[in-house]
Amino acid sequence: MTLDEFQESFWRDLWAPADGTARPPAGLAVYRNTALKGCVDALRSLYPAVHRLTGDAWMEAAALDFVRADPPAGGELQHYGERFPAFLDRALAGGDLPWLSAVARLDRLWSESHVAADAPVLGLRALMRIDADRLAAAQLAPHPAARWQWCAEWPAFSLWQAARGGAADPNPPHWNGQGALLCRPEGAVLALEIGASDAALLDACAAGQPLGAALDGVHARFPCFDPGASLGRLLQHGAFATLTETSP
Amino acid sequence: MTHALGAGLGFKPDFAEDALAACHAGLWFEVHPENYLVAGGPRLALLEAVRAVHPLSLHGVSASLGGPGPIDAGHLRRFAALADRLQPALISEHLAWSRFGGAYAPDLLPLPRSTEALHRVAANIGRLQDALRRRVAIENPSHYLRLAHDWDEVEFLHELVRRTGCGLLVDVNNVVVSAANIGLDATAWIDAIDGAAVMEVHIAGHRADADPASGLLIDSHDAPVASLVWTLLERLTARIGPRPTLLERDSELPPFAELIAERGRAQAVLDAVARAQEVPA
Predict the structure, then answer these.
(1) What ipTM does the predicted assembly reach?
(2) Contacting residues of A for B45, CB less than 8 Å apart
(3) Structure confidence by residue, pLDDT tens digits, A54-64
(4) Which residue out of A15, A34, A70, A143 would a mutagenesis test of the B interface target, given it has the greatest number of B Cβ atoms within 10 Å?
């Protein structure tokens, strides 16, 4: 047997589902257990809110199904499981926890924010230094560690935050839509509840729109939008890294 | 004052504050680079804080030196960038494989030691050392399966040293676990290894497989170091001289003081040999 043939055969045996009839050689079972446990442990630590909301047995079963369908691409496991929320969407279709994948997306965004590049945070003062016309033409770039999500269907942020914090009462105060912003203003990842208009403003800035056009666009969609309050909230939370003035 | 590498500890963020404050002679820390191949953030910042006050070792687990094809180019580039940033005292990897067909298994899979495997691993060690621009220590893994080998493990490792200029990381616990699992002679293995090539030594705890029918020992890193591992560490150190020696503990972490005490025992082994080898002035 060539080395390639050995490895192809070993790899197939490693990921083969335990069918309950043929007992694998004891040594192979050790490799299989270690490999699967490494993947499942990674998903458990990357999706702590999902784990807490579903419990040990459900999480392990779901993680094992996911691992077999979508194994890691490399050893940098902090990036693994990007497609786990979408997998939960399909796995949970019609089930009791229709909001679980929205919570899983927040776990994922937290992990992305946690390992994103460092950069100084843009403060409110930087905006106050330039006049209104120039500010309207300038672009605000989101901070590399800023991640956000608007969830119209579920109070995903309250559900997620209660699960992450191990709250005694995991019930959200209201069953309305909720947005979330995750940033690292001072090192650690901090989470803030935001509204649909805040998320829309972040989307517009991320798309490279000048600030004036971005604010007008959000206002047209959300008549109650308060641009000053929204910008202040986002800046204070560390959502932006740079302000670039465009030449007239 | 330069800091000679004595007995080190696997670094865990759980005991970061204690690690930063620790001031034991010879202490250093080792991490898996994979956990720090990130763009930024608090995890990397914490490692940089540790590295500012203690020597650091990067112990790779996912290069897949024996896998089909060359080491993943992206992984190699990120690994080299991290090493440039941290300037670790030591870098090591494993004689194993873990990638196949674009997927990765978080385990050190067994390699039949053929001449074909020798060529493949040597080429990958060359790629790794070229990218990192330094000598890398290659570790003997734990064995759980009897495979058909053309090469003895020690001879295979020596041939890799000869062909690539790499060093060796002798994991004494892996030798003990493998001896029990596939019937090799642990003492003969330890006595045969070329001391001049040994850059680092690992010790760790193991336990019996949860499945009692298997009769296997598992390289679990979740228990104190076994007495046979201590005996073989003393034997190896007495023969080849003190080497940077790492206590690996990855789960069931005891209080930091207990880890430091166990690591102190390894330091005492190194110190005793160093004293015995001192040439009177």
Answers:
(1) 0.95
(2) 118, 187
(3) 999 999 999 99
(4) A34
